[in-house]
Write a structure and sequence with these properties.
The protein is α/β, with parallel strands linked by helices and 402 residues long. 40% of the residues lie in helices and 14% in strands. The chain has 14 helices and twelve strands. The protein has a seven-stranded mixed beta sheet, with helices on both faces. The protein is globular, with a radius of gyration of 21 Å. The N and C termini lie far apart (48 Å).
């Protein structure tokens, strides 16, 4: 067996189940789960309709590269969304079966585990796939703490020793960030691109929350857009990962894409040909329809915007929450309401109010003597508006009791 399997941490939700062992919530309060970032808004009607209309596609093996129609739809969306003059659907776009699968597989393709001291940088807190992908590719993950003190939860690239940068082969960047909602600035991208050029590592930009934002006139800056604005229209050393899951409320569809550096994607396509992860033709047809439609995405944003606007003033007094740059999470500091740990907060909230949130320490690792998730909880506003409001009122009442 791969010895690195023993180094994998339990997933945050497995830790949450253990934390809640022995807890019996009040029977009179309906359970409200705000712990997992699984969209609960309705899937647009046209997506299942297109699926049903294309069931004939099940009779054919899909190509790993996907259909020309899907790659063209994605390329056209990228050009519209990020104001790019050109994206080549033949060489700069590759459909994937959800960004999670691709984020993991990418490290297996990019990392040379035979090189000494192979490193993968990742934000901290982080999406746990980054860590597992690094370990199973034979590299050592290095965590870059994102704290309130460090540029408002942004990355402090200067905190990474030069020796670590020299050994880095891959960096995962999540913008908008999970769980903080922080969006990288153009200046931060410029800094990172310069380091990638100097040290030769690849940037994996996880952008699965990019379409959950709050000002229709000011969408968040994306990685490919930043590269273009900085004169890097070949997207060298950069690959962006996106998905329909949050954008279109179809997490079960398992549909996304990677786009960017054609030379890197050429090798990733070779890897995926053996990996056996081609997207079903039926799903590809529905994905074309989803990427070509923006009306349902604007409505989805409206629902999230209204929830965040109504809930922020309820939670701010006790937890000091602020609306994120983008995304549907509140990153709440439980120390604002009482001297209590994030795990105790989550367990007692479940036991006393039947509301589930995720302890921040489950989303981070101790790095530099600090776990930047400690004393925070992640609140995912994914339920219907009424449920989210009720949960917010319960959380506020709990904070008052504390």
């Amino acid at each position: 067996m791969n010895p690195n399997l023993s180094r994998l941490h339990p997933y945050p939700f497995e830790k949450l189940r253990r934390l809640f062992e022995g807890v019996t919530p009040p029977a009179g309060l309906k359970p409200i789960r705000l712990s997992i970032g699984e969209p609960q808004h309705a899937t647009p009607d046209f997506i299942p309709r297109v699926l049903m209309e294309n069931l004939g596609g099940l009779s054919a093996y899909p190509a790993t590269q996907g259909t020309e129609a899907l790659r063209e739809a994605i390329a056209a969306w990228l050009m519209r969304r990020y104001r790019l003059p050109a994206v080549d659907p033949a060489t700069q776009v590759l459909p994937v079966t959800g960004s999670r699968e691709a984020l993991f597989a990418f490290a297996q393709c990019v990392i040379d585990g035979g090189r000494p001291n192979a490193r993968v940088l990742a934000p901290n807190p982080f999406y746990q796939i980054y860590e597992g992908a690094a370990l199973l590719a034979g590299a050592e993950p290095v965590f870059l703490n994102n704290t309130a003190e460090a540029a408002r939860f942004g990355p402090n690239f200067d905190s990474v020793p030069e020796a670590v940068w020299r050994d880095t082969q891959l960096i995962y960047v999540c913008s908008p960030g999970n769980p903080t909602g922080r969006v990288l600035s153009l200046e931060e991208w410029a800094d990172l691109f310069e380091r990638a050029d100097r040290h030769g590592f690849v940037i994996a930009a996880d952008e699965c929350y990019s379409e959950i934002y709050f000002d229709e006139a000011a969408p968040p800056l994306g990685a490919l857009e930043a590269a273009h604005r900085l004169g890097r229209s070949d997207f060298r050393n950069l690959v962006s990962f996106s998905s329909l899951s949050k954008r279109s409320n179809v997490p079960g569809l398992r549909s996304g894409f990677v786009a960017g550096d054609a030379a890197v994607l050429k090798q990733f396509l070779r890897y995926r040909t053996y990996h056996g992860c081609a997207m079903s033709p039926v799903v590809q047809a529905a994905s074309v329809a989803a990427w070509n439609d923006e009306a349902h995405v604007r409505e989805n944003r409206r629902l999230y915007r209204e929830k965040l606007e109504r809930i922020e003033p309820i939670l701010a007094p006790g937890l000091g929450v602020q609306r994120p740059d983008a995304g549907f999470y509140f990153w709440a500091n439980v120390g604002k309401c009482a001297p209590i740990t994030d795990t105790e907060f989550a367990r007692r909230l479940q036991a006393e109010y039947n509301v589930t949130v995720l302890p921040g320490s489950f989303l981070a690792r101790a790095a530099g003597g600090v776990n930047p998730g400690e004393n925070y909880v992640r609140i995912a506003l994914v339920a219907e508006p009424g449920e989210c409001l009720e949960a917010a009122e319960r959380i506020a009442a709990f904070c008052q009791r504390l």
